[in-house]
Amino acid sequence: MKDTPKIKVGFLVSYDWQLLRHALPLVYNGADEIYLALDRKRLTWAGAPFAFDEEAFNDMLKAIDVNGKVHLYEDDFFVPDLTPMECEVRERNLLAKAMGEGGWHVQLDADEYFLNFDGFCNFLRRQDLNQKEVNYCVSLVNLFKKLPGGYLYIVTRRLDLIQVATNKPCYQYGRKNDYFNKVAPFFILHDTWARPEEEVWQKITNWGHKDDFDTADYFNFWKELNSSNYHTAKDFHPIEPSLWHRLEFIEASGIEELAARFAALPFPLDSWQLMLKNNRNIARIKHLWHKLRNL
User: Fold this and answer.
1) Containing H/E element for 51?
2) Which residues contact 268 (CB under 8 A, 6 or more apart)?
3) Cα separation of 180 and 34, whole Å?
4) I need a labelling partner for 154 at 20 to 30 A (CA). Which of 74, 139, 165, 192 fits?
5) 215-224 and 197-204 are packed helices; what angle lies between their axes, rounded to 10 degrees?
6) Chain centroid, CA 84 distance in Å
7) Please, what are the domains in the chain?
8) Residue 167 burial (CB < 10 Å; 0-12/13-18/19+)?
9) d(CA 277, CA 284)
10) Which pTM was predicted?
């Protein structure tokens, strides 16, 4: 019998390290190894220093890491001559190298809460690790703002998919590369914007896309959203507006209750749709058809 492939999980850790208190427990049981990539000088990809409570961080890890799965990988991830996005890609590839060859590599951010990760691990272990290079994607649910009594989350026109797992780690733009993307029927809650004002501003002025849009203008748009006007927001993605179609409100007192509510939702694609989407030959035919139509 072949050995069961390891599930290795890597997190990029920065100014929002506190969110690991939600993200880490969700993946801890399913993962065989967990790696945390943290800039040794506590700098963002834009070169800005961030506040970091070493004692609180270590106490958090001690409370969560009861089985000794977590490895801290510190390095210089800010390079002055690179753009923030180039720094991100470099860090992801360095993290993959630190995680070592073999097994399924899963890369996440501290603000990503993987729902039913144990189920995802079982899914990965049923896949052929030695197949041609592949990414497995899951559905991303972006939280946009915390309001009294609940959260605003983003509704997209099409399924918002994010590459999270691969058998041959190689990152070219964020987690993207030129591998074939297959879809796994799981969700990640992305706690990307549902934070206090100062944290949102820190995020959008330091993340990999900060040079791609007017951060001040978008921050003002975000600040003005409330329970009375959120329904007026249409096509508001900061880089590709049509990607984020509208906002919905969901009641929840905190992240744990929110995660439980979303975990109970059915995946938008049924088994037949997943089979069609994950078939390489069908994907090649569709690609060729689109090329011919555009001639």
Assistant:
1) none
2) 139, 159
3) 25
4) 165
5) 150
6) 17
7) 7-264 (3.90.550)
8) buried
9) 11
10) 0.90
User: Cβ(19)–Cβ(203) under 8 Å?
Assistant: no
Q: Which pair of tokens denotes residue 92?
A: 């992801």
One-letter identity of residue 60: M
Residue found by looking up tokens 């070169």 in the block: 47
SS3 content of the chain, % helix, strand, coil (to 5): 35, 25, 40
Amino acid at position 193, single letter: W
**In terms of C-beta distances under 8 Å and separation of at least 24 residues, what long-range contacts does 79-86 make, across chains too?**
80/47, 83/208, 83/211, 84/44, 84/45, 84/46, 84/206, 84/207, 84/208, 84/209, 84/210, 84/211, 85/45, 85/173, 85/174, 85/208, 85/209, 85/211
The CA distance from 175 to 138, in Å, is 13
To which residue do tokens 């208190």 refer? 21
